[in-house]
Amino acid sequence: MDTKLISSGVQYSSLPGNYIRSESERPNLSKVITCDDIPIIDLCCTNRTQLIHRIGEACRVFGFFQVINHGISGESTKNMIEIAREFFKLPMDEKLKYYSDDPTKTMRLSTSFNVKKETVHNWRDYLRLHCHPLDKFVQDWPSSPPQFKDVVSTYCKEVRALGFRLLEAISESLELQGDYIEKMLGDQEQHMAINYYPPCPQPDLTYGLPAHTDPNALTILLQDGEVSGLQVFKDDKWMAVNPHPGAFVINIGDQLQALSNGRYKSVWHRAVVNSGKERVSVASFLCPANCATIIPATQSGSSAIYRNFTYQEYYKKFWSRNLDQEHCLELFKN
After folding, report:
1. What UniProt keywords are attached to this protein's entry (predicted)?
2. Is there a domain that residue 248 lies in?
3. Which among 31, 73, 85, 208 could bridge 271 via Cys, Cβ 3.0 to 4.6 Å?
């Protein structure tokens, strides 16, 4: 391939060799089933006890759920998806101004996952942004398309507010004070990955992103309303999570699994690609402050499964490994 990015507009008739997974590592798409019973939780539910119970059950049984009536307008989500598409359709020389394969940069366009370390790449380009505090980072964001900063700033603020509502409910579902998790995680960072998956000539041979868990606390995923690609691992099977109109997918991250002392699950998930259509998704990550110490909340009579650790320590370990190695939390067990 003659470019660093796959969002070049070039249509490939076959998959380049450095994207082809070995036979045992392929997605085996014919064995994937649709997940029909994923919880869809209405955040406008007036029965608080019932709402908290449903969120707790979803975190315990699934490790993910979808939310509707979440307070983020349809206009905001539509604008976010549209501006993402516009960005990835920019001319290559314009996009390459933002390219970097240095994961420490707070704003960068890159490809795959960790392109410097990998031997086999993933069929994905992404724009990664730090989003909190906004006034610290927004001036470095792309100035093209012209509305990019305004649209993404608005969306970031709304997603952050939703994230804190969810963290409060998750705290209560663990029989903790509503502000317990927020206090423990400190002044949470907020990152965003705007993902672009072009049509792929041989989707059975590669991934958009291979199986992984999220190293942060909570992930709020906006899916393209038309094209599915998210799959989660449950009951020893890969299941497709198809977009639900107006919903966000909420993923429990590694930090909430540790903080809940293993009661809630940071679920393995992956992104697959298709040959017919491009796909866009926007993942927003709430991350503990680097100095925050993650301490498992034990129930009476139980001991801590995980040792105490700082988020900085965890994140450094996560990025030093391959994405699809064993669960990083295994390295932090007592």
Report:
1. Dioxygenase, Iron, Metal-binding, Oxidoreductase
2. yes
3. 208
- Which pLDDT tens digit goes with each residue over 299-313? 888 899 999 999 999
Q: Answer whether residue 1 shows pLDDT above 50.
A: no
Answer yes or no: is pLDDT of 3 > 80.
no
- CATH number, domain with residue 325: 2.60.120.330
Structure tokens at 325: 């190695």
User: Would 12 be classed as within a structural domain?
Assistant: no
pLDDT band at 324 (very low <50, low <70, confident <90, very high): low
Can you give the pTM of this predicted structure? 0.95
Q: Assess if residue 11 is contained within a domain.
A: no
Q: How many CB atoms lie within 10 A of CB 328?
A: 19
d(CA 43, CA 166): 9
Percent of the chain with pLDDT strictly greater than 70 = 98
Q: Find the length of the chain.
A: 334
Residue with tokens 């380009």: 125
**Total structural domains within the chain:** 1
- Could you list the residue range(s) of the whole structural domain that residue 36 is in? 17-332
Alpha helical stretches, state H, 174-239:
180-185
Contact in structure between 123 and 19 (CB atoms under 8 Å): yes
Closest CA to 203 of 281, 278, 128, 283: 278
Runs of H (alpha helix) within the chain: 48-61, 74-88, 92-95, 134-137, 148-173, 180-185, 254-259, 311-319
Residue 6 lies in a domain: no
